[in-house]
Design goal:
Chain lengths: 129, 183
């Protein structure tokens, strides 16, 4: 980040940006949660750290690009949720860090399904072939 | 076509292992190169080697043809805007279909498969339904519901077809339609 007061540099870690993006995304109505992919799981195993679930951040000196994977709720327009996530994450990261967000790529990985236990009652009944 | 690609992949892996093993064998002196040359120089064996080579060429061309020429399936529906890209994975679309079907009282189970092309999507469903409605009625309503829900719920997509295959019927009690019961 830019040295704004002339006494040293300020750096914002990728984790911070990922956390801001994650909070901004999950506060949007229609977002069920973040989606953890295989890469996130492997990253946790290898680094032993807490990789922010479903978020990948690329940060330069003054710019950032964010990839975000989410699960959405049923009943909302998925495309519209994607657009809202892009806007909210961009605004949140820019206002809190001062970085310019060049792109927010959203990957809708799934739709939140109802609990399997609720389906057991539907399984009663003889099967006919 | 997917089978040809998978078969080609398996064959390629086997071939690579075979060539690699022969190379290691020659390098370590485990394989007698004179034996290979003697085998290859035999006129009868030459025909076999040529035929194997031609077969491998044909398989290779088939794999290239199916991979490149045929329009491939997309892994998701993607659209770009000023802020980046929004991509909806095939799994998300299939989950969406499962949710739509869960709201249909006559559909007990559904296994969707979505094929995504650049300009449209196609949905193939395998369903289990209840016996209290005629199959034709239940499936035609489901097709319309899925198409409308996908176009409204996912957005940016045109649904070309919704194919339904009924694999099971759950008997829910009572008389079956069209069956004459003798008391």
């Amino acid at each position: 980040m830019v040295d704004q007061v002339g006494i040293g540099s300020v750096k914002v870690s990728d984790e911070v940006i990922a956390t801001i993006a994650s909070v901004a995304a999950t506060q949007i109505e229609g977002v069920a949660g973040m989606s953890e992919g295989i890469v996130d799981g492997l990253a946790k195993i290898i680094t032993g750290g807490q990789a922010t679930k479903g978020i990948k951040v690329s940060v330069g000196e003054e710019e950032a690009a964010i990839d975000i994977s989410v699960i959405v709720e049923y009943g909302y327009s998925i495309a519209e949720i994607g657009r809202k996530i892009q806007e909210c994450v961009k605004n949140a990261v820019e206002s809190m860090t001062g970085l310019k967000v060049v792109e927010v790529n959203v990957y809708i990985q799934g739709v939140h399904l109802i609990d399997e236990k609720n389906d057991e009652k539907h399984e009663k009944g003889r099967k006919l072939k | 076509m997917a089978f040809i690609n998978k078969f080609g992949l398996v064959l390629s892996i086997l071939l690579l292992f075979t060539i690699g093993s022969i190379g290691i064998g020659i390098g370590l002196g485990l394989v007698d190169t004179n034996l290979i040359l003697t085998y290859a120089n035999d006129p009868h064996h030459k025909m076999v080697i040529i035929q194997i080579g031609v077969l491998m060429w044909i398989i290779g061309l088939l794999i290239v043809y199916t991979s490149c020429i045929f329009s491939h399936e997309e892994k998701g529906i993607a659209f770009q805007n000023a802020n980046g890209e929004v991509k909806i994975t095939r799994k998300a679309v299939e989950d969406f279909i499962v949710r739509v079907c869960s709201q249909e009282p006559n559909i007990r189970r559904v296994k969707p498969r979505v094929i995504i092309k650049k300009k449209y999507i196609k949905a193939d469903l395998v369903v289990a339904i209840t016996s209290d409605v005629p199959v034709a009625h239940a499936t035609s309503e489901l097709q319309v519901r899925i198409k409308e829900s996908l176009e409204a719920g996912v957005g940016m997509v045109s649904v070309k077809s919704v194919s339904v295959r009924v694999e099971e019927v759950f008997y829910t009690g009572g008389r079956l339609r069209g069956v004459e019961y003798t008391s």
